Amino acid sequence: MNLELSEEQTAVRRLAKDFVDREIAPNVVAWDRAEEVDRGIVKKLGEVGFLGLTIDEEYGGSGGDHFSYTLVTEELGRGDSSVRGIVSVSLGLVTKPIQQWANEEQKRHWIPRLTAGEALGCFGLTEPGHGSNPADLQTRAVRDGDDYVINGTKIFITNGTWADVVLLFARTNDTPGHKGISAFLVPTDTPGLTRNTIHGKLGLRGQTTAELVLEDVRVPASALMGPEGKGFSIAMSALAKGRMSVAAGCVGIAQAALDAAVGYAGEREQFGKSIASYQLVQELISDIAVDVDAARLLTWRVADLVDRGEDFATAASKAKLFASEAAVRAANNALQVFGGYGYIDEYPVGKLLRDARVMTLYEGTSQIQKLIIGRALTGVSAF
Ligand code: TGC
Ligand code: FAD
């Protein structure tokens, strides 16, 4: 693995840093307090090309490799995890699967709008009773002539309130387990689809998270994406790359925690000396720094495997597991460096900790990542 960034990678990282410092950093506290990022950020993300990374230029994407994608995702995570998640979901869990699995007509219909930020995507897998084990999901799509009629409920759907299209997973036949599940591209303005915003999240307050209720939602058969019965594989392949992007976002959180802790420790004095001069404060900072480096290297390794066309799913679970736990530790250590000020939202570290916490839960909890890694090593499924 070559750890030196190419000229293109260095340039895209610089572009992302500048974008974050200009468009995101000045607004972070206000967006968090308002419980909504400015929706105009979606169009700006499209214009700068971040919603089209790794997507073919013929469909309006900005191309590039997965390594560049993780560099941008890290920067967005450094700036605001709410914005990072908007991109990870719309690009990573919707546009990329469309590019990989959809037919030509679906690609031409959805991808240019999604990459431009004119439309936003959401990923509807989790249900109220089926989170870690989505293979048991109960949403049903029943064939009726040239249509499917869909009934069911999805929960915790990122971008749910804002999205124009949901990549929806529903059961199309009675085969138990994952083989009866199919994927659909459902416009969110389809009659019968209701979206209820979920309020009161611990973190990621700038993002809209929604419950989607589908009551006799009628879509044409052309809304089916990929072969009938292949939906679960589509979801799993999307999530494998999605875990890489969550890991990269976590590196960004940990880096932001490090920058904040070092900066504050250098300014704050107690007992007549800079707190940076105390060994116990340096311990907090060095623990964060080691977590940043380790999480970044694991994440880069996944991107490198993806770009070389090698198996990466287990490496993605390792990176997501480590980086998410590291981001929580790093943000918590940084908060300790800030003392009481860390508990107030004028300072950045409290939000980093609130945002980091969900990273160990979504796209598969830490326990689920451990079981994925354990299954790969032992050949025994312990779910
Ligand atoms: P398993 O036996 O592992 O696989 C079932 C079928 O899927 C195929 N498959 C893949 N296909 C392509 N690419 C991949 N990477 C694939 N991985 C698996 C597999 O070959 C098989 O197909 P077939 O035809 O051979 O039978 O299925 P399992 O039921 O044992 O899976 C267990 C487990 C725990 C791994 C899975 O259920 C799981 O991942 N659970 C966690 C659920 C989860 O992660 N949910 C995330 C929801 S989305 C979200 O949280 C977004 S957060 C917002 C943000 O990111 O910002
Ligand atoms: P459960 O599956 O009920 O798990 C509860 C506990 O049991 C956890 O500690 C878990 O690790 C443990 N557990 C479960 N099974 C096992 C086992 N076999 N062995 C050991 N321990 C186990 N989903 C989407 O589809 N799309 C989205 O866009 C999306 N965005 C989200 C955004 C937010 C803010 C949140 C909070 C969630 C989001 N999710 C989304 C859902 C998320 O993926 C699920 O919450 C997650 O997969 C866990 O499912 P659950 O909440 O039902 O927990």
From TrEMBL:
Per UniProt, the keywords (alphabetical) are:
FAD, Flavoprotein, Oxidoreductase
Boundaries of each Acyl-CoA oxidase/dehydrogenase middle domain copy?
122-217
Extract the Pfam families matched here: Acyl-CoA_dh_1, Acyl-CoA_dh_M, Acyl-CoA_dh_N
Annotated protein name in UniProt = Acyl-CoA dehydrogenase family protein
Family (UniProt) = Belongs to the acyl-CoA dehydrogenase family.
Q: InterPro entries, from UniProt?
A: Acyl-CoA_DH_CS, Acyl-CoA_Oxase/DH_mid-dom, Acyl-CoA_Oxase/DH_mid-dom_sf, AcylCo_DH-like_C, AcylCo_DH/oxidase_C, AcylCoA_DH/ox_N, AcylCoA_DH/ox_N_sf, AcylCoA_DH/oxidase_NM_dom_sf
Q: Which cofactor does it need?
A: FAD
Residue ranges occupied by any Acyl-CoA dehydrogenase/oxidase C-terminal domain in the UniProt entry: 229-377
The segment(s) forming the Acyl-CoA dehydrogenase/oxidase N-terminal domain are: 6-118
Name the PROSITE patterns for this protein.
ACYL_COA_DH_2 (PS00073)
